[in-house]
Amino acid sequence: MALAHSLGFPRIGRDRELKKAQEAFWKGELDETGLRAVGRELRARHWQVQKDAGIDLLPVGDFAWYDGVLAHSLTFGVIPERFRPASGKPTLETLFAMARGVSGDTCCGGAHAQEMTKWFDTNYHYLVPEFTPDQQFALSWEQLFEEVAEAHALGHTVKPVVIGPLTYLWLGKLKGDAQGFDKLDLLERLLPLYGQIFQRLVEQGVEWVQIDEPILVLDLPQDWKNAFERAYNSLQREPLKKLIATYFGGLEENLGLAANLPVDGLHIDLVRAPEQYPTILDRLPAYKVLSLGMVNGRNVWRCDLEKALAVIGHAHSRLGERLWVAPSCSLLHSPVDLEREEGLDAELKGWLAFATQKCAEVALLARAVNQPDAPEVRKALAESRAVQASRAASPRIHKPQVQARLAAVKASDSQRRSPFAQRIARQRIGLALPPFPTTTIGSFPQTSAIRLARQAFKQGKLSPGDYTDAMHSEIRHAVEIQERLGLDVLVHGEAERNDMVEYFAEQLDGYLFTRFGWVQSYGSRCVKPAIIYGDLSRPKAMTVEWIRYAQSLTGKVMKGMLTGPVTMLMWSFPREDVSREVQARQLALALRDEVVDLEAAGIKVIQIDEAAFREGLPLRQAEWQHYLDWATESFRLCASGVRDETQIHTHMCYSEFNDVIESIAAMDADVITIETSRSDMELLQAFEAFEYPNEIGPGVYDIHSPRVPDTAEMVKLMRKAVQRIPAERLWVNPDCGLKTRGWPETEAALVNMVAAARQLRKEL
Ligand code: GLN
Ligand code: ZN
């Protein structure tokens, strides 16, 4: 019998109950008992949902307050000094303090939160463990064992899930004076903790544990590879069966290593890396379980069951009982339950599967090899075939016009008419800006009045005319303030935008939206990505009227504001039937029309945001160049429909530019604004070393905090910039958009910023 299991289920709840409960707890509206009750309720429900779907072995340990990596840090006692409780024993309060920081005015003084960063190439963010060279580990948190007991009490057969020792260490950072110390040296100290955990699980009657080691799909340094064998040899003693789980890519050169670790099973991701099969069969020792990740845990599409069954059937004939069937990775990255989407178009809904439905798909695949003649199996396969056929032929997806336009794209379409040097000369004449021109990144404070107006409009309580009036008055307000402050290139403030991707997606053909398709981004924050389901096109202009209105209010230059094709793609659920590259290029053409229309409306500066450009880099270095090529080309295709006189800006948030600077330069934006203030302008090093030729606006203040930096501080930062980049190519701007800020601090900071630019001009 092939076994169906799940690597993890979303923890947020179908109505984002976890988010709501955590936020209520933080506000003091819910006590700890109440919060814990919500957690228990969610776990019980999620186990039942998975069991009802036909999953044989249920995950425990996938639930977490705030973040799962954080839970491991508590488990191991990896609690930075500044959060260490006097009693020695961490509490929920300790956990949330590590996640969110503690403000300075409380009893115990302030403590900044742990750093947060992207979980591999997903849009989930985890809290980075902080190690010190003298780091000690001690079992300090009972949550996993409590939850195992809880599941057992409910009569479930479970498989606890832990992050493996090497992945855990890899994800962490050394702090303090760690010169010359290698965090891998902490391994010997950490391993006994795993021994203790496994021992406890054995005592609880657990048979299998899942150990996540997704770093096995990365380019690993040799000493890390070597450490794998050492670590798992030493963990061999515990009489607990171990399944090593890998996901988000192929094992490639680590395949032999992973297959031969002294454990009882291996999970591989055949959605991301189908080529691992059947190679793996020849490499896997004959006693081991092989878990095949067949159902995509990272996207929203129904699985092509017949295609998956071709692999599963073959694997079953070779492995028999040793075959397990699973989603590709934890379902943490999928929305919870498609059944919630009552309002969704029936045909589109028929193409989708969320976490709950994905569990049923996994179970069905196992069933299909165990009982191929069961009527449910036949029915499900027939249905899957029909869905695949309807999608493959649907005119809602396949648009000959869009495809023809893409096919007709010429190399010159992604090329500005003249080289930068000529363009900038023309732009300087047309724009007549002072040296060190000042601008902002696009958004101004999204006040509650703005949000309320938008909500009322969406609910039909505010007429389109009244809504337009409300937004116009916001734009007027933003323009007045910017004129008063003396900024050089103005923005309209983005009041009408809920989100920089969704706003455009809603106006493009080929996107669909769910009402409850939330996935956790970090902590209590969830996002509801739009879904690309078909060929993408722009039925009509999206931003032109707003920007035209804004420009009509001022004699200064008004900057048009768009989200770029790569970012649109990275922050959406993409199609699986065409490549990401094709989708990016379709988006590029749709946005290109908007760029051209803005120019025709008299807009002289157009910013195309590419916040997700750097974060789209594949996990494996060998795949970088291909990605960078199409990402760069998509941006250029989007930006190159305009005259030389029109100035194209792009913007990127906190990024490491060293390894991608060549591609940043190849994007050929006339101006790039970047987030640099927290790096003390260090990030400009990459631009300097590469002799980046175009203009740069290095952010002079951090927009994540309400703190108002003074003029001297910004002048000092810009002086550092001048040492790296010629003054005539520098702009002065904040790090990013100001939508999360309030007006008072925004105005105060911008007054100082304009003063800083004026001072710098005097120094020229
Ligand atoms: N134009 C956007 C804004 O100002 C850019 C946001 C971003 O880069 N994340 O809000
Ligand atoms: Zn930004």
Automatic annotation (TrEMBL):
<feature type="binding site">
    <location>
        <position position="736"/>
    </location>
    <ligand>
        <name>Zn(2+) 1</name>
    </ligand>
</feature>
<feature type="binding site">
    <location>
        <position position="651"/>
    </location>
    <ligand>
        <name>Zn(2+)</name>
    </ligand>
</feature>
<feature type="binding site">
    <location>
        <begin position="441"/>
        <end position="443"/>
    </location>
    <ligand>
        <name>L-methionine</name>
    </ligand>
</feature>
<dbReference type="InterPro" id="IPR038071">
    <property type="entry name" value="UROD/MetE-like_sf"/>
</dbReference>
<feature type="binding site">
    <location>
        <position position="615"/>
    </location>
    <ligand>
        <name>5-methyltetrahydropteroyltri-L-glutamate</name>
    </ligand>
</feature>
<keyword id="KW-0677">Repeat</keyword>
<dbReference type="GO" id="GO:0003871">
    <property type="term" value="F:5-methyltetrahydropteroyltriglutamate-homocysteine S-methyltransferase activity"/>
</dbReference>
<feature type="binding site">
    <location>
        <position position="653"/>
    </location>
    <ligand>
        <name>Zn(2+)</name>
    </ligand>
</feature>
<feature type="domain" description="Cobalamin-independent methionine synthase MetE N-terminal">
    <location>
        <begin position="4"/>
        <end position="316"/>
    </location>
</feature>
<feature type="binding site">
    <location>
        <position position="653"/>
    </location>
    <ligand>
        <name>Zn(2+) 1</name>
    </ligand>
</feature>
<feature type="binding site">
    <location>
        <position position="609"/>
    </location>
    <ligand>
        <name>L-homocysteine</name>
    </ligand>
</feature>
<feature type="binding site">
    <location>
        <begin position="525"/>
        <end position="526"/>
    </location>
    <ligand>
        <name>5-methyltetrahydropteroyltri-L-glutamate</name>
    </ligand>
</feature>
<keyword id="KW-0862">Zinc</keyword>
<feature type="binding site">
    <location>
        <position position="675"/>
    </location>
    <ligand>
        <name>Zn(2+)</name>
    </ligand>
</feature>
<feature type="binding site">
    <location>
        <position position="494"/>
    </location>
    <ligand>
        <name>L-homocysteine</name>
    </ligand>
</feature>
<feature type="binding site">
    <location>
        <position position="123"/>
    </location>
    <ligand>
        <name>5-methyltetrahydropteroyltri-L-glutamate</name>
    </ligand>
</feature>
<feature type="binding site">
    <location>
        <position position="19"/>
    </location>
    <ligand>
        <name>5-methyltetrahydropteroyltri-L-glutamate</name>
    </ligand>
</feature>
<comment type="pathway">
    <text>Amino-acid biosynthesis; L-methionine biosynthesis via de novo pathway; L-methionine from L-homocysteine (MetE route): step 1/1.</text>
</comment>
<feature type="binding site">
    <location>
        <position position="609"/>
    </location>
    <ligand>
        <name>L-methionine</name>
    </ligand>
</feature>
<feature type="binding site">
    <location>
        <position position="118"/>
    </location>
    <ligand>
        <name>5-methyltetrahydropteroyltri-L-glutamate</name>
    </ligand>
</feature>
<feature type="domain" description="Cobalamin-independent methionine synthase MetE C-terminal/archaeal">
    <location>
        <begin position="436"/>
        <end position="758"/>
    </location>
</feature>
<dbReference type="GO" id="GO:0032259">
    <property type="term" value="P:methylation"/>
</dbReference>
<keyword id="KW-0479">Metal-binding</keyword>
<feature type="binding site">
    <location>
        <begin position="16"/>
        <end position="19"/>
    </location>
    <ligand>
        <name>5-methyltetrahydropteroyltri-L-glutamate</name>
    </ligand>
</feature>
<dbReference type="InterPro" id="IPR002629">
    <property type="entry name" value="Met_Synth_C/arc"/>
</dbReference>
<feature type="binding site">
    <location>
        <begin position="441"/>
        <end position="443"/>
    </location>
    <ligand>
        <name>L-homocysteine</name>
    </ligand>
</feature>
<feature type="active site" description="Proton donor">
    <location>
        <position position="704"/>
    </location>
</feature>
<keyword id="KW-0028">Amino-acid biosynthesis</keyword>
<dbReference type="Pfam" id="PF08267">
    <property type="entry name" value="Meth_synt_1"/>
</dbReference>
<protein>
    <recommendedName>
        <fullName>5-methyltetrahydropteroyltriglutamate--homocysteine methyltransferase</fullName>
        <ecNumber>2.1.1.14</ecNumber>
    </recommendedName>
</protein>
<dbReference type="GO" id="GO:0008270">
    <property type="term" value="F:zinc ion binding"/>
</dbReference>
<feature type="binding site">
    <location>
        <position position="736"/>
    </location>
    <ligand>
        <name>Zn(2+)</name>
    </ligand>
</feature>
<feature type="binding site">
    <location>
        <position position="571"/>
    </location>
    <ligand>
        <name>5-methyltetrahydropteroyltri-L-glutamate</name>
    </ligand>
</feature>
<feature type="binding site">
    <location>
        <position position="651"/>
    </location>
    <ligand>
        <name>Zn(2+) 1</name>
    </ligand>
</feature>
<keyword id="KW-0486">Methionine biosynthesis</keyword>
<dbReference type="InterPro" id="IPR006276">
    <property type="entry name" value="Cobalamin-indep_Met_synthase"/>
</dbReference>
<dbReference type="InterPro" id="IPR013215">
    <property type="entry name" value="Cbl-indep_Met_Synth_N"/>
</dbReference>
<dbReference type="Pfam" id="PF01717">
    <property type="entry name" value="Meth_synt_2"/>
</dbReference>
<dbReference type="GO" id="GO:0071265">
    <property type="term" value="P:L-methionine biosynthetic process"/>
</dbReference>
<feature type="binding site">
    <location>
        <position position="494"/>
    </location>
    <ligand>
        <name>L-methionine</name>
    </ligand>
</feature>
<keyword id="KW-0808">Transferase</keyword>
<comment type="similarity">
    <text>Belongs to the vitamin-B12 independent methionine synthase family.</text>
</comment>
